[in-house]
Amino acid sequence: FPEARISLDLWFGDAAQCFPLISSKQPIHAWFLDGFAPSCNPELWQDQIFSQIIRLSAPGTTFASFSVAGVLKRALQSYGVHITRPKGFGHKREMLKAVWQTVQDRSPIAEAISPQISQVSIVGAGIAGLNCAWRLAQRGIKVVIYDESAPLSGGSGNPLAMLNPKLSPISQVAIHLMTIGWQYALRFYSQFTAFRPIQIQQSIEQKNLESSKQLLADYPPQILSLHDQSDTPYLVLHKAGALQPQQFAEVILAHPLIEFKQAKIEKIKQLSDQVYGLYDQQQLLDRATHIIVCNALALNQLLPDTPRLKPIRGQVSWVNMPQPFVTQQYYTGYSYGGYAMPLDQNQLIFGASFLPQQTETDTRIEDHQHNLDLMTQILPNLADQLPPIAKWHGRAALRAQTADYFPLVGQVDETKPELYCLAGLGSKGFLFAPICS
Ligand SMILES: Cc1cc2nc3c(=O)[nH]c(=O)nc-3n(C[C@H](O)[C@H](O)[C@H](O)COP(=O)(O)OP(=O)(O)OC[C@H]3O[C@@H](n4cnc5c(N)ncnc54)[C@H](O)[C@@H]3O)c2cc1C
């Protein structure tokens, strides 16, 4: 229900283990307790479960269940929850309806609904900051997003980004961020017109042919298929995508609860128990109760105790093609160590160079040449159609890479629960950002 601003969090696991992990900052307004009869499923009706349910609720919270078993009624009543037993559905004689009233019974639901977090400041308007901003705004929270220059002026500002995971065996999906991130990102971005579904031909090195065949056995053919008849075998990932960052950013920044401000945040300082100050070089710009730092490589300057991020320079190239793409070509991308895909009906975008520890972002002929060489090895026919390098366009930017290739996500420091970061997204920021935010 995108217009209704509802988001659904699904927790997989045992309630006894999951409930203690859920934050109580936003009270739950309504519970449907559907855990089978207490006689069949006693674990779910233990006191430690009820105490968690109450911890996550607030005066005004409602409870409903098909069960009217004594253990359920007594447990809720012991916390001051008022119980009624109207006529049940279908063959059920009664059901349970309950509400947690205050002593004064002054209809506190409105108080409970008003979010305790009312405004969040985000530093950095790349794909990480934009995803965070959208998530919060969709939950009714006001966001101010800062960028030192313009939105998408860092790594996220290429004309088109590919959503291209290296899939894991199905048995490892639950712990493989890239596979989970891919499924999540496709569903998330497909609500935006900036998204285009594509299939990707992923070339396979001979040494990886066997493991690719095993992967093939794991996934249904509508998702993954193999072409191994030629010298250059490849997997076809049928469910992939391309995102136009500029078009995406326009929609995000038009959200009525999101405000963009241009400023370089030089310092974040705790002003009191729950208030932080955001400073530029001279002055205090803003106060915030919650901050998310999404400024990629500059994270270590702003928050010096964060794990080191390594810069990796990269350049993409794009060119006009002699013929417009036909439909099937338009919806096909290629991945071969580098990547290529139609930027629009007439242009091809491809890349990307990968130069660790280089921090310059000038566009270079040698990076174009590198992109050409990569393509020529695997897709010589496509490379042959490219115009001379002098006619190419390019953009260079920096990736921010962590030592273990996993992004940095979440609370920066246990003693500062209001300060978060999402950074170090490496080469797959567009894939990781939706799930991480
Ligand atoms: C050539 C190239 C091609 C790539 N292709 C793909 C691809 O196809 N698919 C994919 O998934 N990933 C791709 N990546 C990786 C992807 O671009 C990154 O992972 C992603 O952009 C990281 O997003 P981010 O928001 O963390 O950082 P950024 O996009 O770099 O955003 C950080 C922002 O913070 C701002 N900022 C910094 N310091 C401050 C400050 N002090 N105050 C205020 N603002 C500040 C910057 O101006 C910047 O806008 C590519 C990267 C490169 C370099």
From TrEMBL:
<dbReference type="GO" id="GO:0008168">
    <property type="term" value="F:methyltransferase activity"/>
</dbReference>
<dbReference type="GO" id="GO:0032259">
    <property type="term" value="P:methylation"/>
</dbReference>
<dbReference type="InterPro" id="IPR008471">
    <property type="entry name" value="MnmC-like_methylTransf"/>
</dbReference>
<protein>
    <recommendedName>
        <fullName>Bifunctional tRNA (5-methylaminomethyl-2-thiouridine)(34)-methyltransferase MnmD/FAD-dependent 5-carboxymethylaminomethyl-2-thiouridine(34) oxidoreductase MnmC</fullName>
    </recommendedName>
</protein>
<keyword id="KW-0560">Oxidoreductase</keyword>
<dbReference type="InterPro" id="IPR006076">
    <property type="entry name" value="FAD-dep_OxRdtase"/>
</dbReference>
<dbReference type="Pfam" id="PF01266">
    <property type="entry name" value="DAO"/>
</dbReference>
<keyword id="KW-0808">Transferase</keyword>
<feature type="domain" description="FAD dependent oxidoreductase">
    <location>
        <begin position="120"/>
        <end position="436"/>
    </location>
</feature>
<keyword id="KW-0274">FAD</keyword>
<keyword id="KW-0285">Flavoprotein</keyword>
<keyword id="KW-0511">Multifunctional enzyme</keyword>
<dbReference type="GO" id="GO:0005737">
    <property type="term" value="C:cytoplasm"/>
</dbReference>
<keyword id="KW-0489">Methyltransferase</keyword>
<feature type="domain" description="MnmC-like methyltransferase">
    <location>
        <begin position="3"/>
        <end position="99"/>
    </location>
</feature>
<keyword id="KW-0819">tRNA processing</keyword>
<keyword id="KW-0949">S-adenosyl-L-methionine</keyword>
<dbReference type="InterPro" id="IPR029063">
    <property type="entry name" value="SAM-dependent_MTases_sf"/>
</dbReference>
<dbReference type="Pfam" id="PF05430">
    <property type="entry name" value="Methyltransf_30"/>
</dbReference>
<dbReference type="GO" id="GO:0008033">
    <property type="term" value="P:tRNA processing"/>
</dbReference>
<dbReference type="InterPro" id="IPR017610">
    <property type="entry name" value="tRNA_S-uridine_synth_MnmC_C"/>
</dbReference>
<dbReference type="InterPro" id="IPR036188">
    <property type="entry name" value="FAD/NAD-bd_sf"/>
</dbReference>
<dbReference type="GO" id="GO:0016645">
    <property type="term" value="F:oxidoreductase activity, acting on the CH-NH group of donors"/>
</dbReference>
<keyword id="KW-0963">Cytoplasm</keyword>
